[in-house]
Amino acid sequence: MPGTSPVPAPQPDGSYSVYPYQGMGAGRPEPAKRSARSRAIIAAGGLAAVLGAAGLLLPAQYVVESPGPTFNTLGSAGDSDIIEIEGRRSYPTEGELDLTTVYVSGGPSTNISIFQAVGGWANNDDVVYPTEFLYAPGTTSEEVDEENAAAMTSSQESAVAAALTQLDIGFTQELSVAAVVEGSPAEGALLPGDTVVAVGDTRIEGIDSLRAVLNDGGGSAAEITVRRDGNEVTETVTPRESETGAYQLGIELATSFEFPFDVSIGAGMESVGGPSAGMMFALGIVDRLTPEPMTGGRHFAGTGTIDAAGNVGPIGGIRQKLIGASDAGAEYFLAPEANCGEVVGHIPEGLDVVQVSTLDEAVKAVEKLAAGGSAADLPQCTP
Fold it and tell me: What pLDDT was estimated at residue 140?
């Protein structure tokens, strides 16, 4: 209505608050006066808003793990096959053998905001960890990238070795001394760079043969023959019994392989690191080297580390990997037996999970399911 204006309403403390008045002809009142209490409330609200906005922008010492993409080891990434074999006949495949990944936000030198951390807590698909839970103090993002890249390379070599072992295709491997533990039995006898050739009369063909001959010796002095600077040298070392009852020299070992043909893995997957794709790489290699397609056209996914002997080990982030596999349309998921405690109660609807502890078990599970078998008849993760 023309001429309307706010009219002050007296408050008990003598101040005024303003409300819209609809009477005619009223004059413009004096500006309203705020009480000390109202001024305090406004100031507190403003401070809270500022702190809240700052909190959303300030970096947080947390890491958020989310379901990542999947990669079909039988397929390609970019313009290249994920697994390429040269020097030996390979065969057509069908279906999918997906490796699964976890997307990580945050970490050393890449802190996330409080807003991102809260979003991770609110999302049932994500998990949030304090940064120090996953990374040692002082770790840099460059060190993390280097470690992940090295672990990926090592897992690929072990995957080839495991696949060839599964198919009874011969290859050679050598163990070299990467480091000598201070105060260990090997200190002063073995040197970094030594290649372990034999223990006594037993030729060493891998870590398993070294462990076996040391344990069979029961802690007695062992004649360790190594190749050093092109010459073979024999040193006497008395293994020490560990807490697990195994006998050890006190050295860190590195393994190198020589395969009868070339297997290239991981083209187009430069952003993926770590050791957890080993089992799925090995399965893909076995399928590529086997005349009949192994999957029967079915969609499999999975995860797990692997060693040259074909043993499947535990990994991190399996809950997110289960979700990623389900989102990608997988029917079956191969999970390391050692991760079963994290699998139970977190299996997405429509996804069947089979537990495995070796590559041989994984191959047989895929073949049985491809032939129309039931996942319920295979080892399951149970409470």
Answer: 85
